[in-house]
Amino acid sequence: MRPLRADARDNRMRILSAAEDVFGQSPAASTDEVAKLAEVGIATVFRHFPTKVALLEAVLTQRLERLRDRALELADSDDAGLAFFGFFSQVVAESASKLAIAEALSASGTVAGDEAKAAGQGMREAFGSLLDRAQQAGAVRRDAAFPEVYALLVGASRGATATGLESDARDRMLALLYDGLRAGAGS
Amino acid sequence: MRPLRADARDNRMRILSAAEDVFGQSPAASTDEVAKLAEVGIATVFRHFPTKVALLEAVLTQRLERLRDRALELADSDDAGLAFFGFFSQVVAESASKLAIAEALSASGTVAGDEAKAAGQGMREAFGSLLDRAQQAGAVRRDAAFPEVYALLVGASRGATATGLESDARDRMLALLYDGLRAGAGS
DNA sequence: GAATATAAGGAGTCGCAACCCCGGTTACAA
DNA sequence: TTGTAACCGGGGTTGCGACTCCTTATATTC
Question: How far is A3 from chain B (nearest CA, A)?
Answer without folding.
Answer: 37
